[in-house]
Protein 1
Amino acid sequence: MAVIFVVLCLVVICLNRPEAGRLADAHPYLIEQRRSLGKISRAEGSSLIAFAAAITGWVGPSVVGLVIGKDSSITIALSGRLDEGAVALLAAVLLFLLPVNWQTRELTMTWERRQESTGGPSCWSVRGSSSGI
């Protein structure tokens, strides 16, 4: 299965080469744009942690099943306990717990910011990261 995925990726890359490599001024432009973004803020880092936790919780049981077998007791336990909705809710709660500045008790997500945003719990980490909250 993994071999088929690698072959599929190679076929897609060969048939649809990225244009950024062929543009003459793309590399300096991309470097300048990256520099203009600056360093990742603490809020963006916290959002990244929550997002990574959600992705790990969603994909983790499947990866474990691929590695050690889907009939393993560990795979069955992970699949039973890491429901997609529960993982999304835990990642959203994590945003309310991760501090940006502990001295002032500023957290990554506050209830006021949450009321301003729309979307479900899985969107909060993306919105927090993209808006620099």
Note: Residues 42-68 form the longest helix (27 residues).
Protein 2
Amino acid sequence: MNRRASERTVEELAQREPAIRKAMTVLEFLNQNEDARKLYEMRLKAQRDEANMLEGAREEAMAAGRAEGRAEGIAQGKADAKAEVTRNMLRAGMSLAQIAAFTGCTEQEIEELKKNDE
């Protein structure tokens, strides 16, 4: 009777305390027969392998996202700078042909900037 009460107390503790639950899991593992232990180890290895694979994929995806974001930011910065130079040239009174020659913008793009600034 005393042993049953002790087992129930340990089970209750294991439900409330993660560290005790983990210790009981390890104890159960150590008490298993050899075949069951091998299966348990294989399962743990598969879980660890999957977790490592997912973490690697997550890191690769984040790196790709950062690279894509940097590339988009650089492209946007260049476009903004080109538009600002074009606006300055328009304010300086340069012709559309001259601005197009210096900036690489088409005359239509220059006209659009001109309309948007008015």
Note: The chain has a mean pLDDT of 87.
Protein 3
Amino acid sequence: MNKYFDEIRKAIQATHRCDAVHMESVHVTQSLAGKTAWDGEVEAFKMGDSSKANVCFAWGSQNAQSGRWNIYYGIGHRPRPDRS
């Protein structure tokens, strides 16, 4: 597994005490006052049944001096397909 994905997965599991499985990478561009504030990849993880949410969107960066990872994420609910 990719070290980056593994670091994010471990952070999600440690915080939310549930399994996390990488689903996809999504390119996101965020603008503020007409200028690009952030442009990069966000990772989507499926969260295990023991979590209050079913998806976690996360990204991270590695500190050049310490080598430690800074992980940022938000959790939520991804719509489930209508089974009717």
Note: The chain is about 15% helix and 50% strand.
Protein 4
Amino acid sequence: MTIGKRHRERIAIGQTIRMIRERKGLSLRQVAMRCDVDYADIARIENGKKDSRISTFIELGVGLELGPEEVSVIIAALWKE
């Protein structure tokens, strides 16, 4: 089974979010408590198993205490071709 381009992009975005979260020493539940995203959804995003809306990534940026520039990099990856 081959992995499609969109799936690879979801995996890359998820890995980036996980790396940021772990670098900040935060658990999934800690991030979820800081924003309006369920911790199980965050886990699915990090594992590349869930597509999300821009608003979800903005909420994650709040939970991860990211600046607008950092959130925009993650959002820009959604349009990466």
Note: The chain is about 65% helix and 0% strand.
